[in-house]
Every structure is written in structure tokens, then in C-alpha cells.
Amino acid sequence: MRPASQPDLATRHRDVMPPWSPLYHRDDPLEIASGQGCWVRDGHDRSYLDFYSGIAANILGYDVPEVRAAVERQLRTGIVHTSTFYLIRSQVELAERVARVSGIADPVVFFTCSGTEAVETALLLATEYRRSHQVVALRHGYHGRSFGALAVTGDNRWKGMGLSPVNVAHIPAGRPEGSTSADLDGPAYVRLCAEELEHLVDTELPQPVAALLAEPVQGVAGAVPLESGQLAAYAEILRERGILLIVDEVQTGWGRTGRYWGYQWENVRPDLLVFAKGVGNGLALGGVVGRREVMSCLTMPSISTFGGNPLATTAAVATLDAIEDRDLPAHAHRVGDLLRERLDRQLCDLSSVLRVQGQGLLLGLAFVRPGTHAPSPERAVAVQEECRSNGLLVGTGGRAGNRLRIMPPLTVTAEEALHGADVIAAAARRTDTHWR
Asked: What CATH number has the domain bearing residue 379?
């Protein structure tokens, strides 16, 4: 037992961490102490099925033998970090792999430490290449916590004062609950969105426009996908005008949506692709892959001290091996469909549950006040707490905080996925009864 005078971990956290860095389960924050597969244990040795997976970063789960062996092998060399002014074998090997699977013509790769830093790099490249600070992004999107990444973020909950190093205009994304365009069918909605983008870039914005930044499925918004054909329609408008398309695959990449990249559900080819999270299965790593012409546009030297370090890139090579050897994108597609179908079937009669959205193993569940489209963040938090009480970890999100975020490791079995769906459905029913 700890000494009586020793404060608990939550108290110590609050004493030294800023109040704007929140914890889930505010009244009883969770310490994850160990994990294996898709399961974790907390500091009290309680077991949970993890449907949040480190905000989608632990893409293979925990204690993965191939990744652990690769990391241990690198540690035995004594080299965790060297300057990127030296050659790093695992960095070159990983860059070759990322380039090969990117789907981009003549690709070049630059590594960073996070998705936020990768977004900043993509913005730097696009604005330098086009000699313009004018950027377009999607409403409700989230792209990181730094100055430029917050500027292009389309969710005001994360923006603070909204000060910006770039000029940003926002256009429609997918259709979350309460959308004023709910009466339009898919093709009509896509036409409306395309017309708005055309009008914006042709008549309202200063020229030239540098780029459009888009998530194929908006993760922090609660797994809201773009409408079918929407990204392709945007891409065609951009191509005709020489405007760059930057696809943010930080949460959608590496097979989570059922394709290797989320953009591959559409007939598009990005100019720049931003990645992070799952690539290192939890080790800090991100990057940008893009067309050589764009990636080569900087006139000054630029490095990321820790981006692409030997330890993280060694783990990433092992992670990509496992993703390809196990064909995890196809697995995510199959199991994601099972999970979504089970949720739809078990929750279809609850008036407080609007719908399940997303693709593959990136899903969101919207909670509303019964009989309305008015968001109910209280219900989402209550369901999250009830799931934890019954051994399942899920996240929350959405522009009103009313969405459950569901993103288990891609290695989740069908049985685990269906068990998790049953826990979520039971939690939704219990909390629904509480509010009646």
C-alpha cells in the first residue's frame, strides 16, 4: 500500500498538469497499467476491452510480439536516437514502405513526431509551393493542437481565440445529426457542396488558394464520413485550378476504415497525405508523403529532431509488416460491418440514439434528446461511464460532445467486437431508462 501521506495519482495529476488537458471519467480517472491484445488492465487490476485504443494509435493492440521484438532488437544496439543528419536505416526502409502504399505518384516522405507536426509540415509545404497563405478546410474537422493546425480546425470547441497564421475558409463536410441538408439525397448534397467550393475559390477568396485540407472520416467529430462522392467532387474542382489536396489520414490511415487509406473509398489522388497515430502502434511518429515536386519546394533546410528516430521507425516497420501480413484493412472492413450491424439492430428502437456513422473500425454513435435531433452530451458521457463499469472503454466526441467514439485495435476479433456492441447497447438502454 502507498503511504497514507501520498496523494492519489489523480490529485498529483491536477497539481502539475494544466486544466485544459482533460481526463476521461472525471470523478474517477483511469490509469491503464498493462495490456495484451485488445485488453488492458487498470491500476487496480481491473480488466477492460479497449474500444478506444489510445485514440486509434494502438492499431495492433498491446504487447504485440512482432513489434516488441523489433523494439527490443533496436534497444540492444544502444541507439534510440541519432541526428537525422546521419543515415538511419529503419527510417529509409519505412519511407520506402510508406511511399509504396501511398498511392501518390513519385512520392517523397518526411517524418515527424506527431499528427499535429505533420499537419504543420503539410501547411508549410502547400503555402510555400503555391506562394499563398489561403487555405480551405472542412467544417467540424480537427487537425491538432498547434497554431497552424488549430487555425484550420473547423470545430470551435478546440480553437480558443481563433488567431491564425494562415487565412482559412471552411466548407461543408459530411452530415452529422441536425444537418439542415437532411432532406437532400446524397448526389444532391454533393452538388450543393461542390457549388459552394467553386463559388468560394473563384469569387470570394484571394488568389491563389494554396490547398484544401480534409479528413475522409472526421474522427474527433465522432466518425462522421464525407458523403459518397464528396471528396472526389472537391478533388476535381481543385485539380482544374491547380489547388493542392491535402488528405489528413491521422485517424483514418493504415486500414482503419477498411481500406489502407480513407481517401481510397473515392477515386482521388492527394497531393499530400498526412499520417501518424497507428503507424508506430503507440510510439510517437507521424509524417507527410507527397508528390516530389511539392515536397521539394522548400528553399531553406528543415528537420524534425526526433521525427523518424531509429526506435519509432523500427517499430513502424514491424507494425506495417503485421498490417500487411494479416490483411488487417480487409479484417477491419468485415469486423466493422459486424459491429455496426449489431449496434444498428440493438439500438434501432431507442429514440435517444440517432444513428451509427463511420467506416470500418472508426465508428460514432450519436445521442440526442428523445424524439429530437437536439444533441445530448449528458447521455454520451453516461453511456461511456456505464460501459467502463461493465469492462469496456470507449471515447466521446462530436461537435456537441454527444457522440460515442468507437475505434478498437484492428486485431479485434469478431467475438470481441460483438461483445463490445452488446455492452454499448446494454449501457444505452440502462441510461435511457434513467432519463425517462
From this structure: 3.90.1150.10
Residue 94: closest CA among 301, 275, 315, 322: 315
Q: Does residue 276 contact residue 286 with C-beta atoms inside 8 Å?
A: yes
User: Residues 352, 368: contact at Cβ < 8 Å?
Assistant: yes
Q: What is the CATH number of the domain that holds 143?
A: 3.40.640.10
CB 263 within 8 A of CB 94: no
- Model confidence over 119-174: pLDDT tens digits? 999 999 999 999 999 999 999 999 998 888 888 888 877 777 666 788 999 999 99
392 SS3 class: strand
Boundary residue ending a domain (271, 294, 326)? 326
Torsion of the alpha carbons at 103, 104, 107 and 110, rounded to the nearest 10:
-80
Length of the chain: 436
SS3 of 295, please?
Answer: helix
pLDDT digits (tens, 9 = 90+) for 215-272: 999 999 999 999 999 999 999 999 999 999 999 999 999 999 999 999 999 999 999 9
Domain boundary among 326, 343, 358: 326
Q: How far apart are CA 35 and CA 436, in angstroms?
A: 38
Distance, CA of 145 to chain centre: 13
Q: What domain range is 388 assigned to?
A: 9-63+327-433
Q: How many structural domains does the chain have?
A: 2
